[in-house]
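Quick one before lunch.
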Amino acid sequence: MKELFNDYVQSLETYIMIQIKMETARLAPELTAKNRAPISLAMGAPVEKPPQLVTDKIREYALADGMHTYTIVKGESYLLESIAQNMKKRTGVDFDSKSEICALIGSKEGIANLIRALINPKKEMKDRDIILIPDPGYASYKEMVKVSGGMSYGIPLTPENNYMPDLDEAMNNLEKDGYDKNKVKALIINYPNNPLGAICTKEYLQKTVDFCKKHKILLISDAAYIDLTFEGAPKAHSVFEIEGAKDVAVEFFSFSKPYSMTGWRIGWVCGNADAVGILGKLKSTIDTGIYKPIQKAAADILNSQEGDKYIVEANHRFERKQKIVVDGFKELGWPMDKINPPRATFYLWLPIPPKYKTSKEFTDAVLHKSGIVLVPGNGFGNNGEGWFRMSIVASEDDMKEVIRRLKEDGFYFE
Ligand SMILES: Cc1ncc(COP(=O)(O)O)c(C=O)c1O
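Model of the pyridoxal-5'-phosphate complex:
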């Protein structure tokens, strides 16, 4: 039956996190038998419980009348108004809850559908619409573009450009590589960045807005980690702190990471009314909204003191755990003084030891010998080869156990 499916689906890779999950499940009995039960540091899913307010409210609302019905695709009005209030607090900008905000079944769903709405699928690579993406960057962007019949073009984020690449230079490189800049439909930015944890300045956001206005393309800002900054770190800005950003930009937010609500699938997009409207229309043909108790609980937590306190404490926890692993990697010989651990997100991005030829060779060795699940850097783009990502999401005890195993099993930086 495979031949019945379209070329774009045929070329799709199973999402890297699922590949890793399957391989880990296969190895689990063998690893457990040798006292190396898998510790997963692959997915960006914190183990902590969500805020008490959220669990209490979901329980309460689940039993209330009328909660079982279909919901408004773009989000129930109480959620959209709560989001508008949150955006006003973040940016000082007013958002019309009816036309400039849309609730999502997680930000991943929204980004994928927006990309699909932008691209006219084409078979030949040279004819394809282009989406500019960060490299390294969230592994799904590339596959979302591919399955929509477009082409992604990675813009290198490097220590040399301070993870804020020159966009005009990127456009010139795209032309030098033989692609047509008129086919570019959108630029995706993601700060704080997954997998690097890098934050960008407000000046850089201004440049991204100017660039998108100049080229008449959509700016897609993925702000999934915007609230995950450590105390004293530079602020992570919303693109809507830039005047006139609504003319060209949409921004994606998630309840998954700040409130540890990954499985409840809820997020939002806001900004340019044309883009938000088209996404809402597309969604109305393929999904039917989010379970009401989750929308209600999300609306309640968003502007609450309990929610804000939860985020501050979560960031303290991530920072504490980061210190455990950073100190551990130092003892294992990693050049941590040169690496500057990020002050945002819960990711650590490190070079593989020189004796390994590829990222995958290293992460496979660590999985097979120590039961520690990491992600090879090339999964985040070509620029990620030679690196690996660790999600600092397990318990403090598990993070200590990770370092203990790496030492015992001889994974030194050599
Ligand atoms: C950069 C980035 N954007 C979006 C998402 C998707 O988050 P969700 O769909 O849970 O809101 C993730 C998840 O890992 C991510 O890392």
